[in-house]
TrEMBL record, chains A, B:
Names of required cofactors: Ca(2+)
Xref: Gene3D superfamilies: 2.70.98.10, Aldolase class I (3.20.20.70)
GO function term, MF aspect, one: carbohydrate binding
PANTHER family: GLUCAN 1,4-ALPHA-GLUCOSIDASE SUSB, GLUCAN 1,4-ALPHA-GLUCOSIDASE SUSB-RELATED
Keyword Calcium appears in the UniProt entry: yes
Residue stretches in coiled coil: none
Record keywords: Calcium, Hydrolase
Domain Glycosyl-hydrolase 97 N-terminal: start-end pairs: 30-294
Family matches, as InterPro entries: Aldolase_TIM, GH, GH-type_carb-bd, GH97_C, GH97_catalytic, GH97_N, Glycosyl_hydrolase_97
Subunit comment: Monomer.
Keyword Calcium: yes
Protein name listed in UniProt: Glycosyl hydrolase family 97
Domain Glycosyl-hydrolase 97 C-terminal oligomerisation span(s) in chain numbering: 600-701
């Protein structure tokens, strides 16, 4: 349904030059509405209301361009307006739900500057039931062909000094702890200075924060600001005006200080604002995904969600090393590196992980440190480190792939680039050919360190384009990938479903090599990092204390049960089973939940949610009748009711509840848990007791035979 | 022969700390000598004498490094001294002579800083009979591993206000006209501002010039300063102090302002100073080549010097276009580009060049504009322009390569990168595979426009490394190349003989698309640009006026005969036969010289030379008894004697003399020439008359039968 909005169009065109400020477009869906107008200067402005109350006050739009005549934010008139109502459903290749409704009203405002050279600019607005999105489009025109964006002026003028869950506006890292402050208190300097565990920090503006930015108003309204479909543009930071509570776009510059190089016809990413009076609606929203383009891959049957084990945590905790050798400049008489005897990716050790994965139905085994380069890879801004095709001599690549295949397991390739994206770009083809020749179907990539091309940033346009190249080229080889130290996710996994997960946030690993992340961390991630897409958080650590050889007092900031719950609360089609096989064997009863929990879902329900405090989900396994619940809390213990009203009416199920024991506490007693089984049905309301820093995990499967005598009905 | 210089060594080590300034190393070869010392600050200094007279006064050496403790130019003591006398000969794969003598004395001074962290620095000096070279070496050491050069302090303190032949110290182009001024008058601002015909100009220092820098003293001494073996480092500019006449190294910075990223063990390029009281010695010098590493390619039999015709000059003069279409944004209903009807690289036209080449024994035919991208390639700093594998629809690549092969001709591939080296890097493998699949053995590359990675420069370290990658990768496919808009040559064709030529200077093409280069230009190039290596100058234009459709008053700045002479005076193993077939057919008698002249030589003699005025060479064809003479003059007419004493004693030869006619003049009557044949021998002295802007070309072949009656003995 596409039609001219005749009335508005005529009104605007006939009167805009006289009293532009009095004319405005209004676009509504449910409780949300969006207003657009040109102000007295012919400058576009938008505003957002929820339940007739302002959420975003009239806010600036437009650009400063590089060219001498650079004003592209005012002196506009409206040439026309198109509108569209869309209501469709689509099925993701993998995801949290089987089918996604995409329901919105759209208005495209066609603007033209009234002065020479009469440049054209379109703004496309979409209003959904749970939020609004808008983007700029630069139509094909002789007046604007190639151009450089110096500044994007998009602002978000908020209505008060909301509570904000933020990380510093860093161009190179999103692996920060979350700060919870009022907007008026945003100042990232301490956070940046303290984050010495982050390899590269570039945060020149003390008052800039990253998106997804989660906000909560004094009236209890939840607001989330992010972007969708970040392609061929740089990432958006938000600069906070601490007195007016206005946020404004601040793009990540390139090596010479430009923000984006565009060629009309072109469009920016979508700027997104989710709004609801229920926190759960933020988590349930599919708006960011909907604003991305549909899948562009011709086939997707080769894309396989999976759990994977791997040679990884043992390096994080100092048990073994990525490199075969401690130093690159110490070699034997033959010029070979002198082995340190602690190399993780050796054939015998990898077979141990393959055996473990095979025994427990885990599809993948990741091996990091398999290839040459690790002996001298970090921190030197060195362009040529890894070639991605040369194994260390103690890693028998052919034999291991043969062995893994014989055990029904596949090895996952690892490509650390050390931030040298140019080197990776040049070697991608040979690396992917090598993978396919040896049976690898997927790869985990890493970008630790300063980016090369030097002067470019992890979240700048050049790297955004690198990741698009990666997604397309990997797909051409039918390779899936999981990118660490990646650009921030914006729902591109709809368009490129082989881009299965990213790190792009502070993962579980920080509990190994740093002092860790506090218990609230996992209650904030779903409202922030995960709004953009799946996170490879690497959950499942079972040895909660004393695991770190070089820092024996280090400990996880969760209970063991909370680690189970993360498989449900932190959505990803790739989930690592991150701990050592022997640590799982020591808690085989709890490990059953990890064996059972799937990574692809038909349905998802948010049971409870409050950013910084708790989240709880129930999810239904793809193609099966099994449900899984995960609930996590912050440092506070918490009671939670989980009504099982999503179960099929009249049907009985066996629920296995993995609960923190009454004496459990993340700090003092994290490995204390109880596992109980009950018969449950649609009317059951599970009462979950979460310890401080704890959680709950429940698997629910249809009863296909009478329950054992020892299992009673849940009361 | 490698030995400890015991006396110097002991003297230095025992007394250096007390009276460092009084101790110095002296290294002599023939008339040249070099002195080295540490001054009172423990700072290294060198000086150069010629015939006991100073050429370079004691001058600074060393570096400022990026790290906090960045002083790497003083506080040194001498740890030891090694010396070496080398006298060897080597045979280039192709070149000006069959065999090259490499004869030098070397001293390596091992320095160490006397303060923590006691870093090591070696300086290697070589003194030849015609010049000196030195380079810095950073030995493997725990005190200095990865490091960044912020500044190189190498200076050349000259002894007076010499005459200098210079072009501006531009990071991105060396296609400037030469300026001839005193050192005290060096100021590149006017030259840079005037050079609007150069696409990218980056010359921030008004007093910086490029190397090779040719100098002449008031006493008639010729001095040439350049560098050799520029690998993994940025190009050196020279900043001129106009009052003290000191030149100092000024490296080309990268995107973030750093000069070089190094990893010890490492070395800088050689800094070279040629000195002689004869201009010819500068042209004869093989020192720059000798300072490069020997050939690293395992086989070289696939590397073929050749002449080539091509679809190229017709685009330069506006007869046809590189692109099939005038505009990228004008397409037919099918989305195809709308042909402009003037596309040069169409199948019919290319066959015409193939026929011409075949008929005249010209091995290669270059075709530019064969591939998609040209419709929108220039000036937009766009990363993805060309894919190097997609022909325009009117270029039948398979048929043309079949046709060329059937005629004994090979097509030369063309890869314009539009400066996007990242894009070329990523596509090199597929481009080279495509070439080999279709019968191409060599490629001409181009880098017109600002470099991508953005912020990098044509002559910076990143591009230097790009060209090394190019040379190695092309060699791995047995592909030879000729790079336009390339980094400045420094003799790397010894190490990578498949890198056969570069443009890297102001070629003949400027007489088409600009107001051209004055007649003196070709008398300066051998003393400047060509010191670094072969230049693809594209000589051989026969239509001297009225050739440029869009600028009918444009004309060549030479006579026709001078165009012939350039095949001898501008050395390259690749020489274009640049004009249209029909223009050669109009002067088929003169064209005989081009048919005859080879591109590979057994011997070379400089007959006469004075920078800015004239040069004349005689060269002996590789593996044959034929000699060829080329002489060129500036805007002055000139008489020149060419003694043929290089001919074999007692043998008679047939000389064909292509001379400017008495009424010839580059400006008014450039196509006026006379061709005469004589019998000559070892005792003959040819008297050559060069018109203003003119030249002379002579082919000399052994008389195998009695000379025709019409040919008399030369008197």
């Amino acid at each position: 349904m596409k039609q001219q909005l005749v009335v508005w169009g005529i009104l605007l065109l006939s009167t805009i030059s006289v009293k532009a400020q009095q004319q405005q477009l209004n676009l509504a869906m449910g409780k949300l509405s969006l207003q657009f107008r040109l102000n007295d200067d012919g400058a576009p402005e938008y505003a957002v209301n929820y339940n007739q109350q302002p959420v975003v006050k009239p806010s600036a739009m437009g650009f400063i361009l590089k060219e001498a005549d650079s004003i592209f934010y005012k002196d506009f008139v409206v040439r026309g307006v198109d509108s569209l109502l869309k209501d469709e459903a689509w099925q993701p290749v993998w995801g949290e739900v089987r089918s996604i409704r995409n329901h919105y009203r759209q208005v495209t405002v066609h603007l033209q500057q009234k002065n020479y050279p009469f440049r054209l600019l379109d703004i496309e607005f979409r209003v959904f039931e749970d939020g609004v999105g808008f983007r700029y489009r630069f139509p094909q025109q002789s007046q604007l062909k190639y151009f450089i964006v110096t500044k994007e002026l998009t602002a978000f003028r908020l209505t008060g000094d909301h509570k904000a869950f933020w990380i510093p506006g860093d161009y190179d890292s999103n692996e920060y702890l979350y700060n919870t402050t009022r907007i008026s208190e945003i100042d990232n300097r301490k956070a940046v200075a303290a984050a010495t565990d982050i390899a590269v920090r570039t945060a020149p503006d003390p008052f800039a924060v990253q998106t997804p930015l989660m906000l909560k108003t004094a009236e209890g309204l939840y607001i989330n600001i992010h972007e969708a479909a970040l392609l061929n543009y740089s990432s958006m930071q938000l600069h906070a005006d601490r007195t007016s509570f206005a946020l404004s776009a601040s793009l990540v510059p390139d090596a010479v200080g430009n923000m984006a190089y565009l060629h009309a016809p072109a469009s920016t990413p979508w700027r997104t604002i989710l709004v609801s009076d229920k926190a759960a609606d933020i988590l349930n929203s599919k708006m960011v995904l909907n604003l991305n383009e549909p899948n562009v891959l011709p086939t997707t049957d080769w894309i396989k969600p999976m759990k994977f084990a791997g040679v990884w945590w043992e390096m994080q905790v100092g048990k073994s090393t990525w490199s075969i050798s401690d130093r690159a400049d110490t070699t034997s008489g033959d010029g070979d590196l002198i082995p340190n005897g602690r190399h993780g990716a050796n054939t015998v050790n990898v077979k141990r992980y393959i055996d473990f994965a095979s025994k427990n139905g885990i599809r993948g085994v990741l091996v990091e440190g398999w290839n040459t380069g690790w002996e001298d890879w970090f921190g030197n801004w060195k362009e040529e480190v890894f070639d991605f095709v040369t194994p260390y001599p103690d890693f028998d690549l052919k034999e291991l792939n043969r062995y893994a295949a014989s055990k029904g397991v596949e090895l996952i390739m690892h490509h650390e680039t050390s931030g040298s994206a140019t080197n990776y770009d040049r070697r991608m083809d040979s690396a992917f050919r090598f993978m396919k020749a040896h049976g690898y179907q997927s790869v985990k990539t890493g970008y630790v360190g300063r980016i090369i091309p030097r002067g470019e940033a992890h979240d700048g346009q050049w790297m955004v384009n690198h990741f698009e190249r990666m997604a397309r080229k990997a797909a051409s080889y039918q390779i899936s990938f999981d990118a660490h130290e990646a650009m921030r996710p914006t729902g591109l996994h709809r368009t490129f479903p082989n881009w299965m997960a990213s790190e792009a946030g502070r993962g579980n690993e920080y509990n190994a090599f740093s002092t860790g992340s506090p218990p609230e961390h996992e209650t904030i991630l779903p409202f922030t990092r995960l709004i953009g897409g799946p996170m490879d958080y690497t959950p499942g650590i079972f040895k909660m204390k004393g695991y770190c050889g070089y820092a024996p007092d280090r400990q996880m900031h969760t209970t063991l049960v909370k680690q189970l719950a993360l498989y449900v609360t932190i959505y990803s089609p790739l989930q690592m089973v991150a701990d050592f096989p022997e640590h799982y064997e020591a808690h085989d009863d709890a490990f059953q939940f990890i064996r059972d929990v799937p990574v692809d879902w038909d349905d998802t329900r948010v049971i409870a949610a409050e950013p910084g405090d708790y989240v709880a989900y129930a999810r239904k396994e793809k193609g099966k009748e099994n449900w899984f619940i995960g609930a996590v809390t912050d440092e506070e213990k918490r009671k939670m009711n989980a009504p099982l009203n999503f179960l099929e009416k009249g049907k009985q199920y066996l629920a296995t509840v993995y609960a923190d024991a009454p004496d459990a506490d993340w700090k003092t007693n994290p490995e204390s848990y109880v596992i109980k089984q009950y018969v449950v049905d649609q009317n059951t309301v599970l009462k979950l007791d979460l310890a401080p820093g704890g959680g709950a995990a429940v698997s629910i499967k249809p009863l296909t035979a009478p329950a054992p005598k020892t299992v009673s009905k849940y009361k």
